[in-house]
Amino acid sequence: xxxxxxxxxxxxxxxxxxxxxxxAARVESAMRDAAxxxxxxxxxxxxxxxxxxxxxxxxxxxxxxxISIHTWPEHGFAAVDVFMCGDARPxxxxxxxxxxxxxxxxxxxxxxxxxxxxx
Length: 119
Prior knowledge:
The chain has 3 helices and 6 strands; from the N terminus they run βααββββαβ. The protein has helices spanning 18-21, 24-38, 90-101, and strands spanning 6-14, 42-49, 56-62, 65-72, 77-85, 105-113. A 6-stranded antiparallel sheet has the order 2-3-4-5-1-6, with helices on one face.
């Protein structure tokens, strides 16, 4: 069986300090640090804050695919999506994001993308 074209990590970060999850500039910086840690190339980024003390939604378009985050400060929760192909290392991006946000708990699922089905 051929190797997958890309790897998609879905992660849930629980127990994050709410102020970290409502700071759009900090979220964007953490995402850019994560892309660098993974060896990915950022093409474009946008983080949208929903208001004082509320969550943010952010996305980085990468040459290797994308990183996105949706935060709920009122729940101390962030949903993270890291999809990368080529030589980029999505697990290093997730480790960087976890270091930036310091969750009490992080769950993750890895999904190979573009993997042909078994014959």
